[in-house]
Design brief:
The chain is built from ten helices and twelve strands. The chain is of the alpha+beta class.
């Protein structure tokens, strides 16, 4: 059985936490340093997991199996189980949001693509909330989702935006499909796929069309003291925030501004803005619900078996064109929109 790369994938990129760790405000800096230390430990401790983890189902196919645990501001995982599948809501809104976000992601994958959980075989969806103290991140560790409460200074509770929850589960979806390596362009594609899924889940929950959506990732996560609307913008990469403490959003929208860096696994959270923008351009050009034609094309590539673990942007772009033609025909609206979207961001499709 082919091993799947189990990596630490956090929603907050290291460059943001590095900025905050230098803040003159001791409360902000201390929380950021604590988060950086914790995240470094998670990266060092990464290992391999395999699809054999999927257990036999005890419930009908197409039924979620969710478990939410409470770390009670400690770091031992999974924590104390506080809500299981079918249980009544608890008094803890964070627990309930995590439970609902797991369900919303499961529902989109099933309704739009006929996929039974992130592995396609009914994998249980597990989450831990209230991780550590003042922890400013949320992450997928290869087996479960983990959410911090934020520091209250820069970041709010990480279960507040449903797209953050779906983003992290998106790393699980990639893990069980294309298994994209987490560095440079394949890593940026890995991050972008998660942003795409996060945005699609949010739009599905809100019943929005592509034109109605805000295309922001993590809107509502920043506190009021931050000059910014979200962590990232798929519509306009590089415009999500411009803040004295955080700096300016460094995401490029096109290959002309591609960032060459050795940090953040080769800029996986930065250069993901390019394929993000391509997806936004495709979805808005096609109109309607983004999870339908645009999302279907991306899903076909992710699950088609031809996307290499080390694929770069051009590889992915070529496969999206092939997928569009395979499903919708050559020379149609989907074909033309895919070519134009990638051409606009400077990535060849041929």
């Amino acid at each position: 059985m082919t091993p799947l790369h189990r990596v630490f994938c956090g929603i907050i990129p290291p460059h943001l936490l590095d900025q905050l760790a230098q803040a003159p405000d001791a409360a902000v800096a201390d929380a950021a340093r604590r988060t950086l230390v914790a995240d470094a430990g998670h990266r060092t401790g990464r290992s391999l997991t395999t699809a054999a983890r999927t257990a036999a189902r005890s419930v009908p196919a197409g039924t979620p199996r969710r478990t939410v645990c409470d770390a009670e501001n400690h770091t031992r995982l999974p924590g104390r189980k506080v809500r299981g599948e079918g249980d009544d809501p608890t008094r803890d809104a964070t627990v309930n949001r995590a439970y609902a976000g797991l369900g919303a992601t499961f529902e989109l994958l099933l309704a739009a693509y006929g996929r039974d959980s992130i592995d396609g075989s009914g994998l249980p969806l597990d989450a831990t909330v209230h991780y550590d103290r003042d922890y400013g991140n949320a992450f997928w560790n290869g087996e479960r989702m983990v959410f911090g409460d934020g520091d209250g200074e820069i970041f709010r509770d990480f279960t507040l935006p449903v797209d953050v929850i779906a983003h992290e589960l998106g790393h699980g979806l990639t893990q069980y499909t294309a298994n994209l390596a987490y560095f440079s362009q394949p890593g940026a594609l890995n991050e972008s796929v998660s942003d795409v899924l996060g945005s699609l889940v949010k739009q599905h929950v809100l019943g929005q069309t592509a034109d109605q959506a805000d295309w922001l990732i993590g809107a509502g996560l920043f506190t009021e003291r931050v000059e910014g609307t979200a962590l990232r913008s798929m519509k306009a990469p590089g415009t999500a925030y411009d803040d004295d403490l955080l700096g300016k959003d460094p995401q490029p929208a096109t290959m002309d501004d591609y960032v060459h860096t050795g940090r953040d696994n080769g800029g996986v959270h930065i250069n993901s803005g390019i394929p993000n923008h391509a997806f936004y351009l495709l979805a808005t050009a096609l109109g309607g619900h983004a999870w339908e034609r645009a999302g279907q094309i991306w899903y076909d590539v992710l699950t088609g078996g031809e996307l290499r673990e080390t694929a770069d942007f051009a590889d992915f772009a070529r496969l999206t064109l092939a997928a569009a033609r395979e499903r919708y025909g050559e020379g149609g609206a989907e074909d033309r929109a895919v070519v134009k979207a990638w051409s606009t961001v400077g990535v060849p499709t041929r």
